[in-house]
């Protein structure tokens, strides 16, 4: 992976951590996630006339990924209901680089090199270590966090393959995110009602801003996975947990101990290995 690609994916990691912190800090996370997705859908609808239509071969991936993202939304909201950002976020993200590497090997015949594999293992190990620092986590919260990680792994591999088949990673991203963005409010209405979507202007704009950050962050990742190995790209994206830990400390007043700092350094070393693997 080139230095330029690595830096762009790290930018995506910062954006990703930011919108997760916004979601975790909100009072009604299902509503926040729904408004984020509505903003994504509106932005993609505006872009649709200006991007190529994905090839027919990729439309199955578009549909599957939109469904997987909807499941991810529901699991992530449930995960954040009880757990701290600094604890649940690493569990949800930590397993996904290994799952993506495994999925890429099985479905795309993509075997990582030694440095890439070492980097993926260090990133995943450091991420998971961030979650376990003497404090306990409820069984249900743990299961939902791990389930979230499985959804992340599944949609990442689906999008990596779909973007390669599409003929246009940008076009694929816009169309997939459009359908994902439309499924979220549909799910919300089924669980609640339409009227409760209407909230204050400031609250709505903040959630919408988080959605646009999410769209940009994941769009960068899809383009990177179309051009490079999925496992290392996924691992580099998950360095967002380092930024999430810092955001949790300074903005959500969560504890950042020496143990967590050490785990963050392990993640950073893994990211450096991936960046130098070429």
What is the structural class? mainly alpha
> What number of structural domains do the residues give?
1
Please report the total strand number as a whole number.
0
Secondary-structure element pattern, one letter each: HHHHHHHHHHHH
Shape, per Cα inertia axes? globular
Report the portion of residues in β strands.
under 5%
* Cα distance spanning the termini: 4 Å
Mean of all residue-level pLDDT scores: 82
Any low-confidence stretches, pLDDT <50, length ≥5? Answer: none
Largest sheet: none
Share of helix, binned = over 70%
Characterise the protein shown here.
With 278 residues, the protein is mainly α. It has twelve helices and no strands. Helix 1 runs antiparallel to helix 9 and helix 2 runs antiparallel to helix 8.
Please write out the topology.
Elements: H1 3-25, H2 29-47, H3 59-79, H4 85-94, H5 96-107, H6 114-131, H7 139-166, H8 169-191, H9 201-227, H10 230-237, H11 240-250, H12 258-276
Helix pairs in contact: 1-9, 1-11, 2-8, 2-9, 3-7, 3-8, 4-6, 4-7, 4-11, 5-6, 5-7, 5-10, 6-10, 6-12, 7-8, 7-9, 8-9, 9-10, 10-12
Tags for this entry?
278 residues, mainly alpha, 79% helix, globular
Concise structural overview:
By secondary structure, the chain is mainly alpha-helical. The mean pLDDT is 82.
């Amino acid at each position: 992976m080139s230095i330029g690609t690595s830096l762009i994916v790290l930018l995506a990691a910062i954006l990703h951590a930011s919108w997760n912190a916004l979601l975790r800090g909100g009072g009604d996370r299902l509503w926040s996630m729904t408004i984020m997705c509505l903003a994504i859908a509106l932005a993609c609808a505006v872009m649709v006339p200006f991007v190529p239509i994905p090839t027919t071969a990729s439309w199955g991936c578009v549909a599957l990924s939109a469904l997987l993202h909807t499941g991810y939304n529901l699991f992530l909201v449930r995960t954040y209901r009880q757990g701290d950002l600094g604890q649940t976020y690493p569990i949800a993200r930590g397993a996904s680089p290994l799952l993506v590497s495994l999925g890429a090997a099985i479905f795309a015949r993509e075997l990582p090199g030694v440095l890439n594999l070492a980097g993926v293992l260090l990133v995943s190990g450091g991420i998971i270590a961030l979650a376990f620092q003497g404090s306990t986590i409820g069984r249900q919260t743990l299961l939902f966090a791990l389930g979230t990680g499985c959804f992340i792994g599944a949609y990442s591999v689906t999008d990596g393959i779909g973007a390669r088949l599409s003929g246009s990673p940008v076009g694929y991203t816009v169309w997939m995110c459009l359908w994902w963005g439309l499924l979220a409010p549909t799910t919300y209405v089924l669980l609640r009602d339409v009227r409760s979507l209407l909230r204050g202007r400031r609250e709505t704009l903040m959630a919408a801003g988080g959605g646009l950050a999410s769209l940009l962050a994941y769009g960068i990742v899809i383009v990177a996975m179309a051009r490079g190995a999925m496992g290392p790209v996924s691992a580099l994206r998950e360095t967002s947990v380092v930024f999430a830990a810092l955001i949790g400390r300074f903005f959500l007043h969560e504890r950042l101990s020496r143990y967590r700092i050490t785990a963050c350094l392990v993640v950073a070393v893994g990211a450096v290995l991936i960046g130098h693997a070429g």
